[in-house]
Write a structure and sequence with these properties.
By secondary structure, the chain is α/β, with parallel strands linked by helices. The protein is about 35% helix and about 15% strand. It contains 21 helices and 20 strands. Strand 3, helix 2 and strand 4 (about 85-90) form a beta-alpha-beta unit.
Length: about 600
């Protein structure tokens, strides 16, 4: 393979440049601009390679971080990334890199890059890329693939139609908003425009550029376009706004928030206070509306609050204004109790969302950016807030003293609330499983952007690795509340140590996959083994170069959290929790009952797919 190694050759009257292989040690590496003819006239700079051109495009798009695992097939692109203004974090696994990139985007709202080599590098990253699409992140995936002359000849890690399905991985579709194989430098101007257009749209955008190894070193003779990333907002019509004002003025209504409303927190607060509407949120929307506000009735869905059901049954709204949520199973459990008499006004940037989750309910759909919609609504909406109205509030159960040596999860959450939620500005991520339900149910947030969970894909390992990206992109602390199963599955402690990223892992260590263990026991299903050997995560962390503390009793939690927050590098808090404490899923119980599951109405349930 020809590398960019050059040397001047003196012919007596002129000098010129030749290329040679990296294996020839007599050749000196010189940048083209350093070369000159012997009469002092400068030689025109050599055009950039495709690898350098792609990286220059990423810089112009505002990319600041790239996460990945390199390999020989990706060497030229990896080198170009590493010598750019983009900070490159070399991770331990491609899925961890992908989850980190997703959370980096949500931490700083800048598109991020995932890079991998060919073959297994690509397939290892697919789950994280699946999550990127489901979560609505803006990420660009750079991969290597086999060069055209070697295709079908059993190349190392061959990546072609002979070894991988082209449809879906290398083409646009369900996984990628845009995907292509870069077989020629002449494609780059068009590719750049496609990516810039995708990134400029509201919502997520996941792109995949797969660059054959030989193409990475080829020269890009084309002028690259200037990219315009100005957002194009989806705007509702005046007629749609007038109709919504009329519908919402007919009687009391509720506001149901999803993650898509994240950018409109200020406007939503004003709308709620002007109209007196009760506000509820999906798990991902925690904090968009202050959870200590008297009009907030709680979280819906997984880990949600019984106060929502109390409100729907005792102070039933005439209709519900749905802002930025698909109303999928983790948000609604598709419970009919959540359908008000006159149905929904459902606002989303995706026109395919309204009316799908509740196809039988009357739904007035509005395609719009949430912020644009609410601002337009406020211009026409009268002040109709009723006087002296009181709504049910999310429950807070009293925690009695205990002499047990094991830590109760609810006591741990109470301490996290005080030390981290209220006592710092750290981003907090909760892993799938009981970590999700405990955190969603018991932690309270007063502003958007502090809490992250995955409800689209919900992959174990998302928060365990994503915390790296959140901390790196926010340039501050990020805390992952995770189970021992997820921590064993995939983590990036070693990467955090290398780059001294201030990530904190709080491990709910109960030596089992407890969501599955509790669920199987509840359903009376025996013989399925959800136990795992107890693991000392502090020993593992210290073996990788991080610090940590093991907590075995509740009296030690406060001091351990203080040490974790004060740590300047990565830190693991290994908490031995009581596995018998039933995870808080009262809202889930209502959903299961609505779907016909027997015997769950009065019991705590923590089982995702029954």
């Amino acid at each position: 393979m020809t590398e960019n190694y050059t040397r001047p050759i003196d012919t007596g009257s002129n000098s010129y440049v030749v290329e040679a292989t990296a294996a020839d040690p007599t050749y000196a590496y010189l940048e083209p601009e350093e070369l000159a003819v012997d009469d002092g006239a400068a030689i025109a700079p050599e055009p950039p390679t495709v690898a350098k051109a792609v990286v220059s495009m990423l810089e112009e798009l505002g990319v600041k971080c790239a996460f990945g695992v390199a390999g020989g097939a990706m060497a030229t692109v990896w080198g170009a990334l590493s010598n750019s203004s983009i900070q490159v974090l070399n991770c331990r696994h491609e899925s961890g890199a992908a989850f980190s990139a997703v959370e980096a985007y949500f931490a700083n709202s800048r598109p991020t890059v995932i890079f991998t080599t060919a073959g297994p590098g690509i397939t290892n990253a697919l789950t994280g890329l699946f999550a990127a699409r489901g979560e609505g992140a803006k990420v660009i995936f750079l991969s290597a693939c086999t060069s055209a002359p070697q295709r079908g000849k059993w190349a190392i890690q061959e990546t072609t139609a002979h070894t991988l399905p082209v449809e879906g991985i290398f083409t646009s579709g369900a996984l990628f908003n845009y995907a292509t194989i870069v077989d020629n430098a002449a494609q780059l101007p068009q590719i750049f425009r496609r990516i810039a257009l995708g990134l400029s749209q509201p919502g997520g955008f996941v792109a995949h550029l797969s660059i054959p190894t030989a193409v990475q070193t080829s020269l890009c003779e084309q002028d690259l376009p200037s990219l315009d990333l100005a957002h194009s907002w989806a705007t509702p019509s005046k007629e749609a706004i007038a109709h919504c004002v009329g519908l919402l003025s007919q009687g009391p209504f509720a506001i149901w928030l999803g993650f898509g409303a994240s950018g409109a927190a200020k406007e939503i607060l004003e709308l709620a206070e002007r109209t007196g509407a009760a506000v509820m949120s999906s798990p991902r929307a925690k904090g968009i509306f202050p959870e200590d506000h008297p009009q907030y009735v709680g979280v819906t869905g997984l880990g949600g609050h019984a106060s929502v059901m109390t409100y729907m049954q005792e102070q039933t709204p005439l209709r519900t204004l749905v802002l930025g949520t698909r109303l999928g199973e983790p948000t609604s459990f598709w419970s009919k109790a959540m359908v008000p008499p006159n149905g929904f006004i459902h606002v989303d940037i995706d026109p395919q969302v309204p009316g799908v989750a509740y196809h039988d309910a009357e739904t007035y759909p509005v395609q719009s950016d949430i912020g644009v919609f609410v601002r337009s609504l406020l211009e026409k909406m009268p002040n109709i807030a009723p006087a002296n109205i009181t709504y049910p509030r999310p429950e807070r159960e009293q925690i009695a003293d205990s002499a047990d040596n094991l830590v109760r999860p609810e006591v741990l959450m109470q301490a996290i609330q005080s030390a981290i939620v209220d006592g710092s500005d750290a981003i907090i991520l909760a892993e799938s499983g009981n970590s999700f339900t405990w955190s969603t149910h018991l932690l309270r947030f007063a502003q958007a952007g502090r809490y992250r969970v995955s409800t689209g894909v919900g992959s174990m390992g998302h928060a365990v690795t994503g915390v790296l990206g959140a901390a790196q992109a926010s340039k501050g602390k990020a805390v992952a509340i995770v189970g021992d199963g997820a921590m064993l599955m995939n983590n990036e402690i070693s990467t955090a140590v290398k780059y001294q990223v201030p990530a904190i892992w709080i491990v709910l260590n109960d030596a089992r996959y407890n969501m599955c263990y509790q669920g199987m026991k509840l359903l009376g299903l025996t013989g399925a083994d959800a136990l795992i050997p107890e693991t000392d995560f502090v020993t593992i962390a210290r073996g990788m170069g991080a610090d940590g503390i093991r907590v075995t009793k509740e009296a030690d939690i406060k001091a351990a959290l203080a040490k974790a927050i004060a740590s300047e590098g990565p830190f693991v808090l290994d908490v031995l929790i009581d596995p018998t404490r039933p995870a808080p899923s009262k809202g889930r119980n209502q959903g299961l009952a609505a779907q016909g599951i027997k015997g769950t109405t009065h019991k705590q349930v923590s089982f995702p797919l029954v």
